[in-house]
């Protein structure tokens, strides 16, 4: 195990998730392939650390991720935070399983967004704002431009790298924004953030969480961004194309008489 392993967090999470699910500890031990009383024994022996196979099986049995099991103190979280944990974990898992169709919005693309002749910005998270910003002069300078008003940095936000969006139900969209302070020192680690927002028609844009949050959600936000960023580098085939390819693989190149199954 690594230095980051905290057995107490893992055991507390096991206890919490068992209580939430109604599952018995003996049932969990059976599913994890260990003897009855194993969890009790490792909890009493400070020197004993569980193996990775046990951790993987416990996480699977309790329907959670290994990162959450080992690093997120579920019992200390609010119900809303635990709700978001489930949401972020499913997003991460479904992305790894190649089930989600994420779209990339590059920093260059977002930085070039402008208003139309009526002052409208064609992006649900961007708006045209006038505000004061730090400058090379002694006093802040008044600027006007299209910006993303982030939770972390307000109007003074720049796009730092690739951002991603995902269409959800009823034409709602989930956004992962990779941002920074618009003006910052080179070595300022607090000048960068990943934020997750949701846009819903009729409601507007709503902030959900970020990797700057004090809560353990920060780790899950960072992990999700890394997963999506990596997965979007690989090819993904849409269902309608898979149907055509699958038909060809079965030596079927004739036209369907009925409607296609999508």
TrEMBL record:
Residues 14-69 form the HTH cro/C1-type domain. It comes from Wansuia hejianensis. It comes from the Bacteria. SUPFAM superfamilies: lambda repressor-like DNA-binding domains. InterPro entries: Cro/C1-type_HTH, Lambda_DNA-bd_dom_sf. GO terms for molecular function: DNA binding. Gene3D superfamilies: lambda repressor-like DNA-binding domains. This is Helix-turn-helix domain-containing protein. It holds the Pfam family HTH_3.
